[in-house]
Amino acid sequence: MVSGDQLEGRNVVLEALVRNRRKVLKIWLDAGAKPDAKVTRILELGGDRVLRVDRQILDRMSVTGVHNGVIASAEPFEDVSISQVLETVFQSGRAPCFVLIDEVQYEHNLGAVLRSSLGAGVDAVIIPVQRGKGITPIVHRVSMGGAEAVPVIREGISSALAQLHRAGVYIVGADMDGKAPWDLPLSGAVAFVLGGEDKGLTDPVRKRCDAICGVPLAGGLESLNVSVTAGVLLFERVRQGALLAC
Description:
With 246 residues, this protein is of the alpha/beta class. It is 37% helix and 20% strand.
């Protein structure tokens, strides 16, 4: 068993080493891996934490089934609060952007949301304390480094929305009966709220939103996957001129 968080794949492990938000404890690297730019960089940054092992050992260790010859263990992330993120972002002179997911059951969805969030300059993703999936090896794998860069805050959705409202953040819920995203002002301080894969936004959460936003669809589709919806809304914000986080 790997102690700490398990990271699988060359991109995921390399992102953890490069971003250095937490300590990578140990790296298991396929002894037969051919040298390339990523393997060379992992060896450089990993130093004596790298252990060359037979690929069959990695196969037995793997949780995701796709390790690309590299598995690492890392310390858990330090807890970050909504107030800390808000303070940091406002001090930098930017308008904050959050994504809240009321309940996500499929790890691939959370991973995909984190990857889009990284590309769109999101400051934090908020998920419930108990409901839904947390940051698992599969989430790390799908996010391809997004989970290493974008803080994930576990907070009750009602509490999180109350804090964001007090900070003047515009709360936009995602539901199919809402306005098109390009008809809403999204370039300022905004938080996008997405419901679970099956039930969507609950009535209590919907009532706390300043606006409801939907993605117009053709072809008789009723809705999009939650991670696809998140990507559409986030990059509409970018199109409207939001300042991307560096």
